[in-house]
Amino acid sequence: MQVAILMIHVAIAIALVVLILLQQGKGAEAGAAFGGGASQTVFGSRGSGGFLSKMTGLLAASFFVTSLTLAWYASQAGQAPDAGIPDSRLIEQQRSVPTLDDSPQGVDNAAPVLEGSDD
Questions:
Q1: Is the CB of residue 6 less than 8 Å from the CB of residue 70?
Q2: Looking at the domain assignment, is residue 63 inside a domain?
Q3: Could you tell me if 24 and 31 are in contact, meaning their C-beta atoms sit under 8 angstroms apart?
Q4: What is the reported pLDDT for 108?
Q5: Tens of pLDDT along 12-50?
Q6: Sign (positive/negative) of CA torsion 74, 76, 78, 82?
Q7: Second label for 3, Cα 20 to 30 Å away, from 9, 29, 71, 82?
Q8: Is 101 contained in some domain?
Q9: Cα–Cα distance between 58 and 47 in angstroms, integer?
Q10: 3-class SS letters over the chain
Q11: Is residue 13 situated within a structural domain?
């Protein structure tokens, strides 16, 4: 579920950047001087300002919601009691298993040196 929300979050972020870059600034009226007929646009005679502004607001709200959802998932991940943490009895059993360092005193665990070696 978290991966799906993350993928939606990234898609919203990309769409938000594209929508912001598509919007005209306050001084972008010079485009009309180069043959831009406002009555022949896809969005009508008012232009795309209202539509793009509403979509940007909707995507910004969606981005905010997915951010909060992902933050909630991240905060819940640290509270799981059995999330890969071994049981304390298992740790004690592993400590009681003898290793090479636990050999009795006087026993040499070193490998024998062969004659003629350069060591």
A1: yes
A2: yes
A3: yes
A4: 57
A5: 999 999 999 988 776 655 555 555 555 455 555 555 568
A6: negative
A7: 82
A8: no
A9: 19
A10: CHHHHHHHHHHHHHHHHHHHHHCCCCCHHHHHHHCCCHHHCCCCCCCCHHHHHHHHHHHHHHHHHHHHHHHHHHHHHCCCCCCCCCCHHHHHHHHHCCCHHHCCCCCCCCCCCCCCCCC
A11: yes
Neighbours of 12 (CB within 10 A): 20
* 67 neighbors 9 (Cβ within 8 angstroms): yes
Q: What is the token pair recorded at 61?
A: 């709200």
- Measured CA to CA, the distance from residue 23 to residue 54 in angstroms comes to 11
Instruction: Work out the end-to-end distance of the chain between its first and last CA atoms, rounded to an integer number of angstroms.
Output: 58
Domain count, the chain: 1
pLDDT in tens, 41-68: 555 555 556 888 899 999 999 999 999 9
Asked if residue 68 belongs to a domain, the reply is yes
Distance, in Å, from the CA atom of 86 to the CA atom of 88, rounded to the nearest integer, reads 6
Q: What is the pLDDT of residue 47?
A: 57
The domain in which residue 61 lies consists of: 9-23+39-80
